[in-house]
Amino acid sequence: MLLKREDVQARTITEDGRIFMEKAARDGLETVWDRYRAQQPQCGFCELGLSCRNCSMGPCRIDPFGEGPQRGVCGADADIIVARNLGRMIAAGSASHSDHGRDLVEVLRKVGEGKAPGYGIRSEEKLRKLASELGVSEDGQSVEALAVAVAEALEEEFGTRKKALAFVGRVPEKRRRIWEKLGITPRGIDRETSEMMHRTHMGVDNDWKSLLLHGLRNALSDGWGGSLIATEVSDILFGIPQPVASEVNLRVLKEDQVNIVLHGHNPIVSEMIFQAAQDPELMGLAEEKGARGINLAGLCCTGNELLMRRGIPMAGNHLMTELALSTGLIDMMLVDYQCIMPALGETARCYHTRMVSTSDKAKYPFMEHREFHPENARDLARDLVREAVENFVRRIPAKVLSPPGAPVKMMAGFSVEAIVSALGGSAGPLIDAIKSGAIQGAVGVVGCNNPKIRHDYGHVTLTTRLIENDVLVVDTGCAAVAHAKAGLKVPEAAEKAGPGLRQVCRALGIPPVLHMGSCVDNVRIFDLAAALAHALGTDISDLPLAAAAPEWYSEKAVSIACYAVASGVYTVLGTPPPIFGSQNIVKLLTEDLEGLLGASFAVEPDPARAADLILERIRAKRAALGL
Ligand code: NFS
Ligand code: SF4
Description:
Blueprint: H1 5-11, H2 15-26, H3 32-38, H4 44-48, E1 51-52, E2 60-61, H5 78-112, H6 124-133, H7 143-157, H8 173-182, H9 189-199, H10 208-238, E3 244-248, E4 258-264, H11 267-276, H12 280-288, E5 294-299, H13 300-310, E6 314-316, H14 321-325, E7 332-335, H15 344-348, E8 354-357, E9 368-369, H16 377-391, E10 408-412, H17 416-422, H18 428-436, E11 441-445, H19 457-468, E12 471-475, H20 477-485, H21 499-508, E13 513-515, H22 522-536, E14 545-549, H23 555-566, E15 571-573, H24 583-597, E16 601-603, H25 607-624
Parallel strand pairs: 4-5, 4-7, 5-6, 7-8, 8-9, 11-12, 11-14, 12-13, 14-15, 15-16
Antiparallel strand pairs: 1-2, 3-10
Helix pairs in contact: 5-7, 5-9, 5-10, 5-23, 6-7, 6-10, 9-10, 10-22, 10-23, 11-16, 19-20, 19-25
This protein binds FE(4)-NI(1)-S(5) cluster (NFS) and iron/sulfur cluster.
Cofactor: [4Fe-4S] cluster
Binding site for [Ni-4Fe-4S] cluster: 265, 301, 339, 448, 478, 519
Pfam families: Prismane
């Protein structure tokens, strides 16, 4: 396969990305960029959201130029079709986060029942906090019994019998009233997703406005429901993240150690692997095999979970997952679910790497399936680490390329609790810094990579601009990994910030870009925003805040963006969503929502221009607050 130097340059800004894109090509591998190119030109109807295959009278498409058909066989017009498609994207994203949350609730229950050996309650404090929030009485309950009771109360959140999710109580009063008025208060997590699938069936909700409003409710059931549960229960089971130093990029893979890479989203499996990798017997076995130790590294959000709580280094983000394999250094890659390209199993066959899938609901071509359940997780983790160690000797020297140089240093672990404690125990100093203008505002830069956008370019360009202008950046997911690779997540990166933010960072010893976790952990950002709004006696939409997803690709990102806007945060998308086939919907989402929710979307592929939009927004919000 021939790969031109300028192609490689155009595809990524990262050095390890370039080196291993060339290595992959030499090894004859096909990557996500090659497949993207092979798909050109992509379907214009689908790009605009104008195609529908919701029933078998179709598939149908609407001609955007007004010459061909303007209605599907059932009579649906462009507005209805675009709204239905967007609704189903939200449903899929919300379902993904929420099902991940449900899996954690299952483990919590099993821990309480004594059926999950190896797992435990790491944060009793958070368990008790959740109990009181959910109205679960603690009287005379053992921790185990409390875990079961909290798990039961959380299971109820998924159902259909409530008027509002329990965690809506965290939302500022003004915002709750807006949701009530619009009829978008989320009721049950599964209910909203299920209702979205119902509404978008042929012949149900054919009012594009009411479809989109339900889309917001569905997204809110993710943000203030499924994702929030995933984050809170992960904290209970695995601990509340605290600031931790680590490293990032492909150089975290070590030639002289057994490399086990953990990829996916749910920390249930990876935490057990983490424990097993510390087992003296298995470490001894590694030495016997000639390795200097067992090295764990993360990819995507499973990686972020381990990084946040255990300081495990990150090999890379979404678009680096295939390239990580091309090092020839990975002895085993364990995957759980979400964002795991189905191409990975076949890619790994070029090397000695063992590919193992672990979730009953996520199987992949050319991977061995070894199913984890709370009951067997501890034992299975030990077996797998042993097998990874045994695989170390099977590396194929001719195919190994050790990444040159050293990894980039980074800091992670900024849960809301950690941020508050870095501030000296309350959000007060942050509010003061915002009031004084030392910090102009705060922006969540989040989301994925997408081969449509130069890898990491969107994230790094936008974030650099923001911090230069004294805007504090908080991040999650693959965006956070991009920023880390660019060196923005060490306290010394304060030098790159404007004078006000620089001073605050120096005083607190923190980076100007704070890692708040995986994508479900976006709820941490909203928790913080809600706390700031409470402290100022105002609504989230009045604060100088914004969100951006410069390189998003996933349906989960659509759900996140929608709950961000519905929660009152202006959100700029880099990749255009499939809505441009309906001028009505574009206008609603980018203009009219402002009047309804105090926040709206913008679409801006150029990250420098996105930064300008956000800075303008922050200035306007500050002026309205009289700052
Ligand atoms: Ni978020 Fe995490 Fe990355 Fe995107 Fe995928 S790993 S959950 S969806 S690609 S940021
Ligand atoms: Fe066509 Fe309507 Fe069926 Fe969609 S739901 S495929 S627009 S007939």
